[in-house]
């Protein structure tokens, strides 16, 4: 059984890297952000609270995050292990986590603030179907319109320079000390997150002594084409 924590500032690719590891290693990907987004989409009481915080450019409170994570881990559906992102959020939570779970490593995706701003402020969301875009890596065929449904692409309510600046300050104040705590216990593998997603994944696996990542061939690649 493998148990990992993945940490990194917004826009560092935690979700992408977690999914690649989870799919190959049969890990359960526990994303605190995804859990909260589900509540927002489902219009729960918790979702309404999260929506107000996000619109103000603030992070969800630590106590609320801890409660959600404890509840999720108690489901024990992670037979082969898990990779969790969005937790722990402070030193107290990190110490609790180390006492409660025999983790195998902490993956730290290191991304400079200027690159965070470049990536996050390029994000767009389809106002109709909710499809995510990033104008750096995934530009729509028709500018300002969703490739899937033709809906208008809009900036997320929390993706403003002021809101992002507040989140970055909050992140460094709370999370940097957690990373240092994990480093002191020699759990941390730091990876430069500015590289492409495949390169980052390969580096993570090499550092953790995991099998190399083998991307699935594209449908139109030489390996999958057949002559007619």
From TrEMBL:
- Give the SUPFAM superfamilies listed for this entry: Microbial and mitochondrial ADK, insert 'zinc finger' domain (SSF57774), P-loop containing nucleoside triphosphate hydrolases (SSF52540)
GO MF terms listed in the record are:
kinase activity
Q: What's noted about domains in the record?
A: Consists of three domains, a large central CORE domain and two small peripheral domains, NMPbind and LID, which undergo movements during catalysis. The LID domain closes over the site of phosphoryl transfer upon ATP binding. Assembling and dissambling the active center during each catalytic cycle provides an effective means to prevent ATP hydrolysis. Some bacteria have evolved a zinc-coordinating structure that stabilizes the LID domain.
What is the official name of this protein in its record? Adenylate kinase
List of residues binding ATP: 11-16, 123, 195
Q: Which InterPro entries match?
A: Adenyl_kin_sub (IPR006259), Adenylat/UMP-CMP_kin (IPR000850), Adenylat_kinase_CS (IPR033690), Adenylate_kinase_lid-dom (IPR007862), ADK_active_lid_dom_sf (IPR036193), P-loop_NTPase (IPR027417)
Known CDD domains for this protein? Answer: ADK (cd01428)
Q: Name the NCBIfam families on file.
A: adk (TIGR01351)
* NMP: annotated segments: 31-60
What pathway does the UniProt record associate with this protein? Purine metabolism; AMP biosynthesis via salvage pathway; AMP from ADP: step 1/1
Q: Which PANTHER family match?
A: NUCLEOTIDE KINASE
**Compartment(s):** Cytoplasm
- Quote the gene name from the UniProt entry: adk
Highest rank taxon of the organism: Bacteria
Ordered alphabetically, the record's keywords are: ATP-binding, Cytoplasm, Kinase, Metal-binding, Nucleotide biosynthesis, Nucleotide-binding, Transferase, Zinc
Which reaction(s) does its UniProt entry say it catalyses? AMP + ATP = 2 ADP
Instruction: Please list the residues that bind AMP.
Output: 37, 58-60, 86-89, 93, 156, 167
HAMAP family linked: Adenylate_kinase_Adk
Fetch the PROSITE patterns from UniProt. ADENYLATE_KINASE
Q: What is its EC number?
A: 2.7.4.3
Q: How does it assemble?
A: Monomer.
Which Pfam families does this one have? ADK, ADK_lid
Q: Where is this region: LID?
A: 122-159
- Binding of Zn(2+), residues: 126, 129, 146, 149
Task: Name all Adenylate kinase active site lid domain ranges.
Answer: 123-158
């Amino acid at each position: 059984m493998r148990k990992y924590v993945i940490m990194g500032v917004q826009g560092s690719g935690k979700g992408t890297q977690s999914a690649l590891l989870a799919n190959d290693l049969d890990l359960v990907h526990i994303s605190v952000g995804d859990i909260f987004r589900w509540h927002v989409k489902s219009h729960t009481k918790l979702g309404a609270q999260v929506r107000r915080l996000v619109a103000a450019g603030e992070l969800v409170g630590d106590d609320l995050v801890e409660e959600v994570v404890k509840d999720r881990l108690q489901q024990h559906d992670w037979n082969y292990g898990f990779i969790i992102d969005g937790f722990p959020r402070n030193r107290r939570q990190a110490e609790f986590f180390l006492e409660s779970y025999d983790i195998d490593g902490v993956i730290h995706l290191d991304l400079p603030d200027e690159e965070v701003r470049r990536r996050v402020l390029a994000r767009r969301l389809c106002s109709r179907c909710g499809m995510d875009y990033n104008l750096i890596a995934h530009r729509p065929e028709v500018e300002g319109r969703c490739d899937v449904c033709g809906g208008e692409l809009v900036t997320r309510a929390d993706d403003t320079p002021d809101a992002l600046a507040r989140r970055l300050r909050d992140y460094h104040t709370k999370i940097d000390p957690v990373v240092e705590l994990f480093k002191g216990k020699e759990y941390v593998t730091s990876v430069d997150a500015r590289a492409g997603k495949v390169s980052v994944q390969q580096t993570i696996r090499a550092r953790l002594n995991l099998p190399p990542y083998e991307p699935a061939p594209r449908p139109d690649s030489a390996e999958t084409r057949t002559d007619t």
